[in-house]
Amino acid sequence: MSTSTLTIATTAEQVDRAARQAHAAFLSIADESPSTRAARLNTIADALRAHSQELVALAATDTNLAEVRLQGEVKRSAFQLDLFADEVRTGVALDATVDHADPDWGMGPRPDIRRVNVPLGVVGVFGASNFPFAFSVMGGDSASALAAGCAVLHKIHPGHRKLALRTGEIVVAALADAGAPAGLFSLVDGRPAAEALVDHPLIKAIGFTGSTTGGRALFDRANARPVPIPFYGELGSINPVFVLPTAWDSRAEEILTGYAGSFTMGMGQFCTKPGVLFVPDSASEEQLRDTLGTALDEAPLAKLLTPGLRKSFGKARDEVASFAGVRALVSGTDSEIPTPTVLLVDAESVASDPEVLHREMFGPATVVVRYRDVADLPALAAQMEGQLTATIHADEGDPSGELLSTLTGIAGRVLWNGWPTGVTVSYAQQHGGPYPATTAPGTTSVGTAAINRFMRPVAYQDVPDAALPPALQNVNPWEIARRVNGSMEPAGGTP
Amino acid sequence: MSTSTLTIATTAEQVDRAARQAHAAFLSIADESPSTRAARLNTIADALRAHSQELVALAATDTNLAEVRLQGEVKRSAFQLDLFADEVRTGVALDATVDHADPDWGMGPRPDIRRVNVPLGVVGVFGASNFPFAFSVMGGDSASALAAGCAVLHKIHPGHRKLALRTGEIVVAALADAGAPAGLFSLVDGRPAAEALVDHPLIKAIGFTGSTTGGRALFDRANARPVPIPFYGELGSINPVFVLPTAWDSRAEEILTGYAGSFTMGMGQFCTKPGVLFVPDSASEEQLRDTLGTALDEAPLAKLLTPGLRKSFGKARDEVASFAGVRALVSGTDSEIPTPTVLLVDAESVASDPEVLHREMFGPATVVVRYRDVADLPALAAQMEGQLTATIHADEGDPSGELLSTLTGIAGRVLWNGWPTGVTVSYAQQHGGPYPATTAPGTTSVGTAAINRFMRPVAYQDVPDAALPPALQNVNPWEIARRVNGSMEPAGGTP
Question: Which candidate, A338, A380, A345, places its Cα nearest to that of A363?
Answer without folding.
Answer: A338
